[in-house]
Amino acid sequence: YGVAGAEYFVVFDNQCKILWQSPTSDKSSNVTGASVFDFEGDGKAEAVYNDELYLRVYNGKDGQVLFQTPNTTNTTFEYPLIVDVNNDNKAEIVVIANTICYQNCSPNPNHGVRVYADTLNNWVSTRKIWNQHAYHITNICTGEGDGFCEKSDDKYGAIPQNEIKNWKVAGLNNFRQNVQGTSGFKAPDLLITAVNFVRTECPNNLWARVTIRNEGEAPVGKGLNVAMYYGKKKDGGRFVGLGKTIKVLYPGDYTDVDVKWYQVDVKYPVTLEFVVDDDGEGHEQYNECREDNNNYIIFDVYCEKEG
Questions:
Q1: Which of 222, 153, 147 is nearest to 179 (CA)?
Q2: Model pLDDT, residue 183
Q3: Is residue 229 part of a domain?
Q4: 279 is a domain residue
Q5: Higher pLDDT residue, 73 or 205?
Q6: Which of 51, 145, 163, 213 could, after both became Cys, cross-link 26 (CB 3.0–4.6 A)?
Q7: pLDDT category, 184, cuts 50, 70, 90?
Q8: CB–CB of 149/164 below 8 Å?
Q9: pLDDT at residue 176 above 70?
Q10: What angle do CA 258, 251, 136 make, to 5 degrees?
């Protein structure tokens, strides 16, 4: 377990001996908390703590600082939350910040609610709820049948009338540590299965309706990008349009996405390439079980107005 004081964050083993300690600065309250989560799904939990100046993620075994960023706060009883805040089936870190500092707020004072996610999108999934300061998994229900609430109590946001004892559940015996979601070790597989054209705006605007399917084992959140290129992307094709999904795409689901090339400035016919999970600048949102099947090429496309 971990304890935060004025100058150190200290982790003890199950014999109450110091496992490791790391210098911090918390002279304003000395009573901040910390949270725990296994971000990488490797069976080794990390500790997450915010003192007056920095948010840090520590290796739970030896205290190595894995991540550090300025996040100023005149602390009281707060601590970082680990929760899926945007329904993307990935964990995020939520912290608060302010510029009322016991000491100098340098180097980068800030304020507000701040949410951090993994830029490589490798963090595992977790719950979308964290309800109290003394958070523990069996004290709040999700309605997802995860086994941490009795069936009679299992509704989203419900406090169970007959709480299952956290310390008696295999893999738990923990406070301020969220559970990994059922999709933690699975991945999506995103494909384009069809492209049809809506010709009501031809020839000025080329309007494509792209059908996306998730053939993987993990869902993806709404806002999934679908890019359109004039020419083949690998040959230097020009990015000309972007569409986004408007719903969560669960395993086996499909959806249509409208992508438009406005004010077409070349002569027809054209070669088009569509790429799912591409923002037009080569950036991906999701790590998939296959990354080599996201594109769909169509040759000799004409855009003539109907009628």
A1: 147
A2: 47
A3: yes
A4: yes
A5: 205
A6: 51
A7: very low
A8: yes
A9: yes
A10: 115
CA 118 to chain centre: 7
CB atoms within 10 A of CB 48: 27
Distance CA 255, CA 249 (A): 8
**Beta-ladder partners of 22:** 9
Which CATH number do you get for residue 229?
A: 2.60.40.10
**pLDDT tens-digit readout, 117-150:** 998 778 888 899 999 999 999 999 988 877 888 8
Distance CA 255, CA 212 (A): 5
State the amino acid at position 302 in one-letter form: Y
The tens digit of pLDDT for each residue in 37-51 reads 998 877 788 999 999
- Residue 280 has which token pair? 């037009």
Instruction: Please give the Cα distance from 106 to 307 (Å, whole number).
Output: 66
The predicted model scores a pTM of 0.67
Quick one: which H or E segment has residue 153? none
The DSSP code for 200 is T
Query: Is the pLDDT score of 283 beyond 90?
Result: no
Alpha-carbon gap, residue 191 to 212, rounded angstroms: 6
Examine residue 172 and state whether it is found in any structural domain, yes or no.
no
- Whether the CB-CB separation of 239 and 273 falls below 8 Å is answered with no
Q: How confident is the model over 274-291, as a mean pLDDT?
A: 89
Give the total number of structural domains in the chain.
1
Q: Cis ω on the peptide bond leading into residue 80 (within 30° of 0)?
A: no
Name the average pLDDT for the chain.
89
Q: How far is CA 46 from CA 61, 135, 176, 232, 268, in A?
A: 8, 17, 12, 43, 56
Question: Whole domain around residue 281: which residue ranges?
Answer: 190-301
| Domain assignment present for 49 | no
Lowest mean pLDDT, pick from 18-32, 81-95, 187-201:
18-32
